[in-house]
Amino acid sequence: MTAVSIRNVSMLFAGKKNGDSIRVLENIDAEVAHGEFVCIVGPSGCGKSTLLNIVAGFLKATSGDVLVEGEPVIAPDPRRIFVFQENGVFPWLNVHENVGFGLRKQTRAQRDQTIARYIDMVSLAGFENAYPHELSGGMRQRVEIARALAANPDIIYMDEPFGALDFLTRLKMRADLVRIWQSEKKTILFVTHDIEEAVQLADRVLVMSNRPATIQEVVDVDLPRPRHLDSPGYLEKRDRIFKVMGMSLRVGETAT
Cα(57)–Cα(74) distance, rounded to whole angstroms? Predict the structure, then answer.
């Protein structure tokens, strides 16, 4: 069944001069199935985050429609959680309070049980009383992911959530996210500039073009998990996306 349907979405922004406009997205069509992990990649500035913000209801498309569970998206919805690149945790709340922020309708006992479950799931047990400034960047992102999961959303939108982390921390976070997704089976739509990250995470990768962006190709990543960065299947999918984007792994060479 379809969780998200993007139908003929285009987006224009006003230019610097009166009457000018910048066409960012051009007739985008895509679907995301229930429980699917889909990544969006494309050149820098092509409109990946703009598309995600339209799907999430933060922006209104110039034309076209987005349907979630068959209903038009007209505004953000608490059943769908957005995880941002920059820290979205509340600096004045500790880890326990951050994770439980959206659970105020639960009883205290239910809330504490839910918080404990997701803190443990993201490997932060023992840090319940720590504040964000006392945590590393990767740990703060774990807090945000735990808070998103604790709210029990139907869909999680993620906009380059690991972009500011160092390479080794990103590898660990990818492995943790896949493990959690396999356990929870949430629908995830994930924007990244990192092609290797997309192939490591996704069931399918939507490859966008330069502006005005279209979907150039949808790459099925039909590989078993966990995925190893040096496996032939992984390298084949990665290289296919590089080729679609007109890129080469060798500096100074353009893919043909």
Answer: 6
Number of domains, the chain:
2
* Residue 11 in tokens: 């987006």
Give the range of the structural domain holding residue 102, as residue numbers without chain letter: 86-149
- Count of CB atoms within 10 A of residue 67's CB? 16
Tokens 């009883």 correspond to what residue? 107
For the segment 167-220, what is each residue's pLDDT rounded down to a tens digit? 888 888 899 899 989 998 999 999 999 999 999 999 999 999 999 999 999 999
Q: Of how many residues is the chain composed?
A: 256
Which domain CATH number covers 163?
A: 3.40.50.300
CA-CA distances (angstroms) from residue 80 to 104, 127, 143, 171? 17, 27, 17, 25
Query: What CA–CA distance (Å, rounded) separates 221 from 237?
Result: 7
Mean of pLDDT over the chain: 91
Lowest mean pLDDT among 47-51, 165-169, 230-234, 237-241: 165-169
Q: Which residue, among 83, 205, 235, 218, has the nearest Cα to 145 in the 3D structure?
A: 83
